Amino acid sequence: FVVMVSFSSVLKWCLMMVFNFHRGVGSPFANEQKTAVASVQIRWVHIAKCGQSFATTIYAWGCEPAIAKHAIDFLVTSKSPSKVTQAAHRWKAENCSVPHRHVIPPVESHFPVDYKRDAGHVVTMFRSPKQRNLSDKAYFHRTQTELGHQTYMMTGTKRPTLVDAKAAARMVSGRELLFAGILERWNESIVLFHCMFMPETKPLQAQLENLHPGTSSNEQGANVNKSDIPDDPADELLYISALHRFDRDVTAHRSCVNEKAAEWQILL
User: Fold this and answer.
1) Phi and psi angles of residue 169, each rounded to the nearest 5 degrees, phi first
2) What is the maximal distance between C-alpha atoms in the chain?
């Protein structure tokens, strides 16, 4: 009788443990399930003449320190105009193995968004269309700049219309875009990115520098007549949406942005 009672008690205890295990109570993984960090995937859309230097932030976020250092050192020291592509071939950010972080390829060149794959993961920098087009024309020695380029990069539609720009603007203001930075507010964009995705990590000096100077920092734009740059209605509409999105995200992370900027001594 004593043995039967003991066996019955053990059986009840086993059944209770199985039941609780499925509920997550008493499970050796219960605490892990509660504290698990959600994985983040990022697809950097590199819009031409809108901040090639942001590549340093992608490597700093997505790669283990050793690989990030090699790639960023190369981006800082190389004088090649295609150094982002060269870095991507030598240190593939998408192959980095930082827990809970994954960079979606491609990292190099100017490939537009593929929303079937990239929706919800896109990070990019936007720029005033007039300044972007001026820089584009001067840097590439074009006789005519490509209007609507930022809209094209958000939609994949070449020669975009205002209808395309409105669709792109909805994407920028919605969940399709994970992060929208503004080139004219570079330092604030970098601090905001860190607040959103890596708040305990101080930005490297390389992330705050212009590693690919254009018309804003040398004389090559002096021979370009600004009056020759036509209006760009599609990109202007998109840029307004990007500014609104950026301001909204800064407001949502205002405490962090202000505190971290002061702590890291970054002038906004």
Assistant:
1) -65, -40
2) 102
Cis peptide before 106 (omega within 30 of 0): yes
3 state SS of 259: helix
Whole-model pTM: value is 0.82
Contact 160, 168 (CB under 8 A): yes
Return the half-sphere exposure (C-beta side, CA atoms, 13 A cut-off) of residue 250.
19
Per-position DSSP letters for 81-109, written without gaps between them: TTHHHHHHHHS-GGG---TTEEEPSP-SS
Tell me what pLDDT residue 9 has. Answer: 58
Angle between helices 186-197 and 254-263 (to 10 degrees): 110
SS3 assignment, position 44: strand
Q: Which residue has the tokens 């700093």?
A: 60
Segments in the chain below pLDDT 70: 1-38, 214-227
Residue type, 172: V
Nearest to 206 by CA among 54, 3, 84, 24: 54
How far is Cα 50 from Cα 136, in angstroms, rounded to an integer?
10
Tokens 């002096």: give the residue: 222
